[in-house]
Design goal:
Rossmann fold; alpha/beta; RNA_pol_sigma_54; single chain; DNA-binding; elongated; 338 residues; 12 helices; 3 domains
């Protein structure tokens, strides 16, 4: 049976107390440089590895962080996760991923499971169904570090990292208007989601800036954010059956943008002849579509990195943090031929 070397074994071999060995390995200032050198050299020689479970019990740290997203396969989230991992692993933390698939119930279960696994903190992007955030509020009040990214909860006072959704939506809608379209529809996720609110504001702002009155019949919400094909198809059929049907559509989500192209293809709606489209998407697959899709690209990797840096700052802080920041990163508009 595998028996790992313990601090006791090192202490016995070197004729030192276990507390001296423990402090020397932790590199604390109470131990002389000479003693530290002897202990570290011996530990290296016998290939001593600290027991992570014992360490976590001692430090009350598991050196792991939980990540809650709607879907790992979503190109935005997969890039954000790469950003999260790039920081976490460098700092010695494991990343535990969970997917909500846009379900509030699943989000509650995932969050409770991660908390029960004693993660040191959570990185959360809310599901499109989430309105009640008491499952997060109670953990936050008990001192679990939580940082929100992309889809945030305003009610919880903590660090948040988002893209400039309003400006991204404003730029995409303005691009459609400059291209000569006047009747621009908007397909978005659930009404209460922070990204939906901000992107709707940008869309309406661009219309007003160009003296076009927003038309509520042109605004369609898909509560599952593109996870359910039928929701998107119904929304587009409703738009196409309006007496004055739209000539362009601004789509406010990664999953919705690619889903929308499938709906158009199935309904034999030609892009951009019957309908022009601009969307929010980080997917490189868009370049393969013909016509390809003009899209707002978010700095997903940077958002993931920054959110993780902020979370680790909370986890490793010696004193409770009381000043929180909301970081807003700029988006880019990739103009393609749709």
């Amino acid at each position: 049976m595998f028996e790992p070397v313990t601090i006791k074994d090192i202490a016995k071999a070197l004729g030192l107390s276990t507390s001296t060995v423990s402090r020397a390995l932790r590199d604390t200032h109470e131990i002389s440089a000479a003693t530290k050198k002897i202990v570290l050299a011996y530990a290296k020689e016998i290939n001593y590895q600290p027991n992570p479970i014992a360490l976590s019990l001692k430090e009350r740290r598991s050196k792991s962080i939980g990540v809650v997203v709607s879907e790992v396969a979503n190109s935005y989230f997969s890039q954000a996760i790469n950003g999260i991992e790039s920081i976490a692993y460098d700092r010695g933390y494991h990343v535990i991923l969970s997917q909500t698939h846009e379900s509030y119930d699943r989000e509650v279960i995932n969050v409770q499971h991660l908390a029960s696994r004693s993660v040191d903190g959570l990185l959360v992007s809310l599901s499109s169904q989430t309105e009640d955030i008491s499952h997060l509020t109670s953990l936050h009040e008990r001192g679990l570090p939580i940082v929100f990214f992309d889809r945030v909860a305003d009610e919880i006072n903590t660090h948040k990292v988002v893209a400039n959704n309003e400006k991204g939506a404003f730029d995409a809608t303005s691009h459609l208007i400059k291209s000569g379209y006047k009747r621009i529809a908007h397909l978005t996720s659930s009404t209460q989601l922070s990204i939906s609110i901000e992107r709707l504001k940008g869309y309406e702002g661009a219309l007003k800036a160009n003296n076009i009155e927003p038309n509520s019949a042109y605004i369609k919400h898909c509560p599952h954010g593109g996870m359910i094909y039928q929701e998107m198809e119904d929304a587009i059929k409703e738009l196409m059956s309006l007496p004055e049907k739209p000539d362009a559509i601004f789509v406010a989500g990664d999953r919705l943008s690619t889903g929308c192209l499938s709906v158009f293809k199935n309904l034999k709606i030609s892009v951009p002849n019957d309908m022009a489209i601009a969307g929010f998407s980080n997917s490189d697959v868009l370049d393969l579509f013909n016509p390809s899709l003009t899209s707002v690209r978010q700095p997903a990797f940077e958002i993931g990195k920054l959110a993780t840096q902020m979370l680790l700052q909370l986890i490793e802080a010696k004193y409770p943090v009381e000043e929180f920041e909301k970081k807003v990163l700029e988006t880019d508009l990739f103009v393609r031929n749709s």
